[in-house]
Every structure is written in C-alpha cells, then in structure tokens.
Design goal:
Number of strands: 4
Radius of gyration: 10 Å
Number of domains: 1
Strand order of the largest sheet: 1-4
CATH topology: Alpha-Beta Plaits
Largest sheet: 2 strands, antiparallel
CATH architecture: 2-Layer Sandwich
Strand content: 15-25%
CATH class: Alpha Beta
Structural class: alpha+beta
Shape: globular
Distance between the termini: 7 Å
Length: 56
C-alpha cells in the first residue's frame, strides 16, 4: 500500500524524522514521500500530528 501526504501537512517534519528509509523530504509547500524509497511501514502515519498522511 502506498502513502500520500495531503495538503493538511503542517510541515513539522515529524514524518521525515520517523521514516526509517529516509523517503520523506520537504517539497514546495509540504513534505512529500518518494514512493520508490518508501518501505510502506506506516511509521510516518503514526507520527503525523495533523493526520495528513493517507493511503493512496
């Protein structure tokens, strides 16, 4: 299952810090997931305070 970071992202960086693969980086307006590097572990979902990470 792939994940997507929505516009609800508050750019706090919690998801990036929690990602064991280093697949999450700051984009133009909010964080984005590099799907080719994502392990699909869900660690980012558990740490997102705004609930901005959803399944694609």
């Amino acid at each position: 299952m792939a994940f997507n970071i929505t516009s609800d992202c508050i750019a706090c960086g919690a998801c990036s810090d929690a990602c064991p693969a280093g697949a999450i980086h700051m984009g133009d307006d909010h964080y984005e997931i590099d799907t080719s590097a994502c392990l699909e572990c869900g660690a980012c979902i558990d740490t997102c305070p705004s609930g901005a990470i959803v399944e694609k």
